[in-house]
Design a protein that fits this description.
The protein has 300 residues and is of the alpha/beta class. It is 48% helix and 12% strand. The strands form two sheets. Strands 2-5-6-1-7 form a five-stranded parallel beta sheet, sandwiched between helices. A two-stranded antiparallel sheet has the order 3-4. It is globular. The model has no long low-confidence stretch (mean pLDDT 91).
């Protein structure tokens, strides 16, 4: 029932208890944990903060808590190219699948029903439109919580109907309460969820750090292109070597660092648009070589 950090957000939610809420911030920073804390506090016999001891707090899963997330598979069972939250997850359909509107109208077992949409930026337009009336006028016993990276990531019609709580990355000093490993802390980027994942997969994190080191160390030699390919392969596998690369860029000076980070942003955009990996690896390698060469020339 305890959260690391975000004390101001906890106090605000315990006091205001908004029925239509948007929690924003980077992935892994604690958005979902805060939503669950809010739901348990609303149903706790002692109120906020949730005690962890009463009948409601001891229930997992909680009967008055529903979480909806993007579907990662199509109806045929294949991996979805773009995970989405579909309208049948929001409104009743003949499929019999649990849907938000039907579930939230049911009276709670304890005090309040809380429906969380984790990844609200992935709502289809039809699903978002079906949600509007409930966000504007939720049932008296219910709360709807949207989770997204930012207010601008969701449709304006949704954003105008919710109270936003923004979560920022935690200071490194707070994460030192969990781990003092420099590689794990670099990977976490101030997000406790990322740090907990890194602690469970330390060798994966070491591989990401080594991939970044190989990329920056090989800029002047032939090994650099192979390192660029490895970097893209890790990205395609859903892993993120960029915190370690950003750490290396800091030693290049402000101008070179800014140029390298801009190139990294373009790389991610191009890969998301399905630009070929071999072409991107060559571009990525040559771009970093040029930035680094300019840096060396200015130093002479």
């Amino acid at each position: 029932m305890k959260l690391l950090g975000h004390e101001k957000a906890q106090k605000l939610l315990a006091r205001a208890r908004p029925q239509s809420l948007l929690i924003t911030g980077p992935e892994g920073v604690g958005r979902r944990a805060l939503a669950r804390w809010f739901a348990y506090g609303l149903n706790c016999e002692r109120g906020f903060p949730p005690c962890g001891q009463c009948q409601s707090c001891r229930m997992t899963p909680h009967p008055d808590y529903l979480e909806i997330a993007p579907k990662k598979e199509t109806q045929s069972g294949e991996a979805a190219k773009r995970p989405l939250i579909h309208v049948d997850q929001i409104v009743p359909r003949t499929s019999g699948e649990t849907n938000l509107l039907e579930w939230i109208e049911t009276r709670p077992r304890f005090a309040r029903r809380v429906a969380v949409i984790n990844g609200a930026e992935h709502l289809t337009e039809a699903a978002a439109n079906a949600l509007l009336k409930t966000l504007e006028e939720p049932p008296a016993h219910a709360h709807v919580v949207l989770i997204a990276p930012s207010r601008s990531a969701i449709l304006p019609t949704l954003a105008s109907r919710v109270q936003e709580v923004r979560l920022a990355p935690l200071p490194r000093e707070r994460l030192l309460e969990i781990s003092d490993d420099p590689d794990l802390l670099t990977f976490a980027e101030g997000a406790p969820g990322r740090l907990f994942w890194a602690m469970e997969h330390p060798e994966v994190v070491r591989d990401l750090a080594r991939a970044s080191d190989r990329l920056t160390a090989g800029l002047e030699g032939e090994s650099g292109l192979a390192a660029a390919r490895d970097f893209l392969r890790l990205m395609d596998e859903g892993l993120d070597p960029t915190p370690f690369l950003a750490r290396a860029f800091k030693g290049w000076g402000p101008a070179a660092e800014a140029a390298a980070l801009e190139a990294l942003f373009k790389l991610k955009e191009a890969r998301a648009a399905y630009v070929g990996a071999e072409l991107l690896a060559a571009w990525w390698h040559q771009t970093l070589r040029r930035i680094h060469a300019d840096l060396r020339a200015r130093a002479l």
